[in-house]
Structure formats: C-alpha cells, structure tokens
Design goal:
Strand content: 5-15%
Number of strands: 8
Distance between the termini: 44 Å
Strand order of the largest sheet: 4-1-6-5-8
Shape: elongated
Structural class: alpha/beta
Helix content: 40-55%
Order of helices and strands: HHHHHHHHHHHHEEEEHEEEHE
Number of helices: 14
Radius of gyration: 25 Å
Largest sheet: 5 strands, mixed
Length: about 375
Amino acid sequence: MNHSEIPHSDLQLWHQIRPYFQVDLLQWFDIQARDLPWRRTKDPYRIWLSEMMLQQTRVDQAMPYYHAFLEAFPTVFDLAKAPLDAVLKRWEGLGYYARARNLHKAAKQIIANHNGIFPKTAEEALALPGIGPYSAAAILSIAYQVPLAVLDGNVMRVLARVLAFEEDIRLPQNRKTLWIWATRLLPTEYPGRFNEAIMELGATVCTPAKPDCRACPLQPACSAYRNNQQSALPCVSKKPKIPHYHIAIGLVVNNRGEYLISRRPDDGLLGGLWEFPGGKQEPNESLEETCKRELQEEMGIEVGITEKVALVKHAYTHFKITLHAFLCTLGRGTPVSANGQPFRWVMEDELEHFAFPKANVKVIEALRNRKSKPTLFDETN
C-alpha cells in the first residue's frame, strides 16, 4: 500500500511503527524462527497443505500428520487420484475433516484447471474449495511473493496490542480495520517472510496469556506495553455457552462376529467418515432406549444390548458430547440405511482400515481392550 493512500489521521502512527515491523521484526524472525518443514520449501503444494493443517490445529499436533500425509501423497497429482477414504484415513485424528475433503476436491480442480500447479492469483485461489482470504494470502505470499496481508488470530493480537485497538475483534468491521493495518505495514519486497514473521511473533512471543514483552522486537512501538494493557487486549466478546449432548451408539455384531459400520454423508459434520450408528438422546429417554431407537430409525434393525463398552467425552468447536457405546446383538431386521449412505459388516481387525471420528477411534480401542467396566475417555479438558 502506498503511504499516500493512508488517511492523514493514521499517517503519523504509520511512520512511527513501520520501521519496527519492516526491519526489527524481520531481523528477529531471521534469528528466532522455528525450524518447521514447510519453511524449508517454496513448493506451493506443501505450503498449502501446511496452511490447511494449521487451521484449528497446533504446530506440534500437525507435524506428524504433515509428514505422514506427504509420504502417502507426495504431490498434488497423488492426492487428486487417491480415493477419498484413503485421504480421510491419513487425516484421522486431526479433526475438522472438511479440510481434508476440500484438499481432495481442490487437488482435482488444480489438475483439471491449472495443469497441476497451485494458481498464482487471489481470484483463482479463492475459487478452490476450502480457500478463504487468509489461506489465499498466506499461500500466495509465501510461495509466490504475492503482496497480500494475512490476518489470523495471532496477527490480530499483535496488531491490537501495538495499536491499542480496543474494539471487539470478533466483529467483521473491526477485523477489517486490522486487516487494513496489516496491509499498510506489509512490505511489497518480501511479503511472505513478513507474514510468517508476524504470525510467528503472535504464536511464540505475543501470546494470549503472559506475553514475553522483553523478547519482542515490536516492544518500542507497542502501545499496550507502554500502557500496561497486554492482558486487556485484544478485546474479544464472550462466546455463547456451548451445548452438551449425550449420544448413544450401537456396536452391533452379527452371528459371524462382524460389526456394523456406516458412512457419514460427505457434506455434513465429519463428512465421509465411518462410524458406529446411533444418535442423540431425547428427553425422558434412557441411553439404552436411545441406542435401540436410533438403530431402528437409521438402519431398520432391532437389537439387544449386552454391555456398555465405553464412555467418551469429546469437544467440537460449537458443542460437546458424551458418547455412550453399547455392544449389541442383531435381532430382527436386515440393515438398510435410512439416508441411503453406504454401510458395511466388518471384522474387528478390519476396523483399522476405515477412517473414523476421534471419539469412535476411542470406542474401538475400548472394544479391543474391554473389561468388566466401560472405559472412560475424557478429551474435553
């Protein structure tokens, strides 16, 4: 952004803080940047993969998945031709499975429309499944040095503190203001390095709690530091209370010792993953009644419950669940999926070949190690 485009009311502040962002921050990054595998490459496929994995996921959690995914699908061509089930299996446990489905869809589009090369313009990148303004800016600036500013939680926190920005950053108009400032401060010569640097600062130094201001290259420019406002900024409105649901599922076994599993629709939560059928507990209904009702409604079968195998507490972004897993024997009826989704009968040792949601993976673990009491897994802490 040309400085002549900056309103006069902001121009003095811009002049004051720009050297710290465009010189001191980058010098700090050269010395302090973590050695991460996606920083050793300019391959847009690998950068794209890292950006998708790092959405909603910490670096330490994403790292083994990143290596395993590239081992299975080393190029965008390998990803595009792979079955979706294989892609989801490699993603199993990382969560937010829409990311994996969108990677797969986008890979096919990149092969079909861009000769296997990630597009180099924001317009073309934004047309790909799963690519929004942040990820387009990150990928294009790092891989191709396209001058686009990124704005994620780390960047908003850094800017809000430096600028003493006291508005609620959950509101779109306030996010836009911070994005404008990120664009003003972006150097056109090395935008990718700058974007990585400011995100790294937010992730490792300007953290939500107890920021290490003594190690911060932006400290002389930071209004929050001067006014002792670090703990008060950024301003974030409270999230609504997260609902909690009890879910009962049936581990239905037939007379051959096979278990019934069904595949979730591709376009919903946990789309494309396999699961043990079941559903949400209704008011004034026991969990055993829930299990039987859901199996009747979903698969058209009657079952007998023999034992409770596991209880799994799990948190999603907008709600929490307690998953109650019951071992069941098949009674009347032949399974028919009410929503037309695929289902399978599989032996216990075959379950590992299918991609399951994390809570179901814990149930499988309990199934293999079941004792007289159900196994408790609590992943909500």
